[in-house]
Amino acid sequence: MMNQRLAVAAADITSLAPGAEILVNGVAGVCDSLGGFYLPDDGVLVVSDLHLEKGAAFARRGMMLPPYDTLATLNILSAVIARYDPRIVISLGDNFHDRRGSQLMPQAFRDTINALARGRDWIWINGNHDPEGTVDLPGQSADELVYGGLVFRHEPSLVAGKGEVAGHLHPSATVGRRGKYVRRPCFATDGTRLVMPAFGVLTGGLDLKHKAMHGLFDRAALIAHLLGRDRIYSVRFDSLIG
After folding, report:
1. Which pLDDT tens digit goes with each residue over 45-61?
2. What does 191-238 look like in DSSP terms, one character per residue?
3. Is CATH 1.20.1740 the classification given to domain 10-239?
4. pTM of this prediction?
């Protein structure tokens, strides 16, 4: 799963670029290989499922994980913000791994977020892991946001999916060639809605062919935009292995 190189048949790939340009409900955006979604017309950068302080949350329960996840995730977030210099950042929920994460986060990480947010608007969408919002961090919290022809929320809706940009499901996809398989996080979109990959470094992934994804997409139009080391690999749903 950690292999960053994808070996897939050329016929299966619809595009191969550092960022894949897509339309969601007619709104143009770029799926970036670092895991962010950028809307150039509005200067909006979207990330999802940071799960900051996951290692600390597990440690509070007596389960030891390497304590570097917040630092690593914030480093990647810093890189994608530097790439686009967005006017607005939207983080789509599960920003922290548990309800106490933002309250107990060390000051050094808090300072990093303050620096990243300086001069821009920051919206924290509430997730199922952190439904009560953030503590002592810049920006504002909301259950969902309607902006620029899109609806930003944490969990995808089976009822109202048009123009939706959501997270929660941590989509991933598997490709293969000559008996070798690679599974990577992915953006998943059929042009009507977009489900974002998880941004946090300690997050897992749910295969795009899992039953939890059923009913969310028009599979005939569904494309998985897989995250590679420095580029996006765009693969049609019917070419994926599940």
Report:
1. 999 999 998 977 766 77
2. SS-EEPPP-STT---EETTSGGGTTSS-TTT-EEEEE-SSSEEEEEGG
3. no
4. 0.90
